[in-house]
Amino acid sequence: MTTPPSVKPVSLWDPVVRLTHWSIAVIVLMNALLTEGGGQIHVWVGWIGMAILVLRLLWGLIGPAEARFSAFPPNPRAAISHLATLVAGRPRDYPSHNPAGALMAYALWATLAALMMTGLVMTGGATPMQIDDQRAAVALGDWSVLVKESDDEDSHKPGPWKKTAKEVHEVAGNLILFLVALHIAGVVLESRAMRRNLVKPMLLGAAKSKVRK
Amino acid sequence: MKTRLLLALALTTMPFAAMALPAVGDMVGVNPDEATTALTAAGCTEPKFDVEDGQIEAKCTDAATGNLAEIYIDPKTGAVTEVKMGD
Questions:
Q1: Would the CB atoms of A156 and B49 count as touching at under 8 Å?
Q2: Which 26-65 residues of chain B touch chain A by CB within 8 A?
Q3: What's this model's pTM, rounded to 2 decimal places?
Q4: Is the Cβ pair A146, B32 closer than 8 Å?
Q5: Are B60 and B71 in contact (CB under 8 A)?
Q6: Chain A partners of B57 at a C-beta cutoff of 8 Å?
Q7: Of the candidates B62, B53, B51, the residue with the CA atom closest to the CA atom of residue A125
């Protein structure tokens, strides 16, 4: 087995990675804990989150080396191996996310995508602007704005898709909070084991990372 | 005496006990006036209407318990699709 090359970790993530990281953190906390499910702000925040997630995923294809998916491929075996080194108190550096952090990133993105897709199914794909218009009309006593031409007579019974979407949305909403807690615990543990503040490169940092030759 | 008191209490509270919230499938109307009348008659007082997931969400107070209730109404048929207690 070859020894991996010695690397210098990222000391400052690029602005897009930082912006998407913290804005997604705010969005998750807002929609999980503060906004009313299905409400106006919840839907707006969800759509903003969708745009930010798309930006981050696009950045994983065209961004700088450490932000690209190729720099942190999902590798469960490497993640377990990394956690073992962490438990032993000898975690090594990586030029991007470590394998466990990478798995967490993919898990968070997949859960976010599930939340957004099911949210779209639940709202019938209505944009936040359309929902604002509907609310304004309903506030004035006009409920007909919610009736679509395609609605059938049995529409009062929630369809299987909507029902399933709602259940998946609720499970994913709880799952993402669990993942966030796990992510924070991982950062704290790793920061202590490496005697280095891992939050700093995601905030202000100092300099660009370079692989040691 | 005690029995009479209990009987009187039971008789006076009977109308409230009989008023339950609307059930799924009940028709309450396709506009706020009809729905307010039907919901109030069913024990869901002072309903306030909003939109949630393409349906009408009526927030009201359960007259029997004083708890908040959320009644979801299909805007096309006027049928109750879901009843949730609390906020």
A1: no
A2: 30-33, 49-57
A3: 0.73
A4: no
A5: yes
A6: 38
A7: B53
B51: chain A residues, CB-CB within 8 Å: 131, 134-135, 138, 146
Residue A160 in contact with residue A203, Cβ under 8 Å?
no
- A128 vs A40: CA distance, rounded Å: 7
Name the DSSP letter for residue A3.
P
How far, in Å, CA of A133 to CA of B74, rounded?
18
For B47-87, write each residue's pLDDT tens digit: 999 888 778 999 999 888 888 999 999 888 899 988 888 65
Determine the residue of chain A that is closest to B48 in CA distance: A139
Closest by Cα among A11, A6, A17 to A93: A6
Edge-to-edge order in the sheet of strand B55-62: B44-52, B55-62, B68-73, B80-85
Architecture of domain B20-85: Roll (3.10)
For the question of an ipTM over 0.85, the answer is no
- Count other Cβ atoms within 10 Å, centred on residue A167: 11
Angle at CA A31, nearest 5°, toward A29 and A36?
Answer: 135
Tokens of A71: 């720099």
CA distance A71 to B56: 48
> A46 with A115: CB under 8 angstroms?
yes
| Confidence tier at A94 by pLDDT (50, 70, 90) | confident
The ranges assigned to domains in chain A are 15-132+159-203
Q: How far apart are the first and last CA of chain B?
A: 42
Closest CA to A21 of A105, A115, A110, A107: A105
Subunit contact B81:A157, Cβ cutoff 8 A:
yes
